[in-house]
Please model this.
Amino acid sequence: MQVEYFPAPPPPGPRDPRSLPHDAGLELDSIVSTAADLELPNFARTVDVLLGGSANFAVDREAAATLLRIDPLVEARVRANRAFVRRAVRYAHAQGIDQFLDLGCGIPSNQSVHGFVHAVNPAARVAYVDLDPVVVAHARELVAGTPEVSVTWGDLRAPDCVLAAPEIDGSLDPTRPIALLVCGVLHFVHDDVAALLRRWRDLLAPGSLIAATHAAPVHPRAAAVLDGTYSRGLAGLTTRSRRAIHEALQVVGPVVDVVDWPRGGAGGRYALDHLGAVGAV
Ligand SMILES: C[S@@+](CC[C@H](N)C(=O)[O-])C[C@H]1O[C@@H](n2cnc3c(N)ncnc32)[C@H](O)[C@@H]1O
Model:
């Protein structure tokens, strides 16, 4: 049993690292209006359902119910992931960071990153980036009237291009530390994530942080469920081991189950097959 999502999966494999979707001649408005008939659920809106948000439609709620039947841990995983993001935001704030770049942001409705950030520093800047035009359209509506928050339609696999996008260039100062959030998204990147994160690190000022969460298959059955469930909608899911995630992130602390960060040890449990870590730049 699978859930088919809109939009169609982005093509796997290398993309031109200098281009944003706009540069490829794609128009956000026309793509979003194609989705307006709501015949297909959207993955990020389905995550919104699981988080208790209201930026979703009947078709997404049906998809969430199907997902829960296939993978009963999915709601706990999504919620634990968000709780990790909130703790990582607070950690970054405690380090004096007031700029946040959220790659693969999903829909910032319930439990949004800008909500977490502005609860501790209302003046902090938050730049959201997502590849899914439907997510970008929803996100822009949700943050309208909040000048500290921007939304960019972009691909995290094109770091230089994302940082040069006008919305980000105009709001974040790359010469000062940035908290880079790559949560729940790197497993949709099938290329060399270590090289990708190296490039991101090179672009960030010293004192920056990278907070990541990542699907890690520990139980073969869980891996099969994850691959089967998500392969149609998101061009497959590449799970990685704790060690691979550790190497890619070059973290100082251990890579632990999201529910255990920051206190868990490296040998800790895999309660949800979903790992989290924060690395220093
Ligand atoms: C599971 S959601 C994660 C949302 C949020 N970051 C969180 O942790 O709850 C994954 C999001 O990543 C986006 N995404 C997937 N590949 C991407 C890419 N190459 N660049 C930017 N966003 C991407 C998807 O469109 C989706 O909205």
About this structure: Strands lie at 99-103, 125-130, 149-153, 179-183, 209-215, 256-257, 274-280. The radius of gyration is 17 Å.
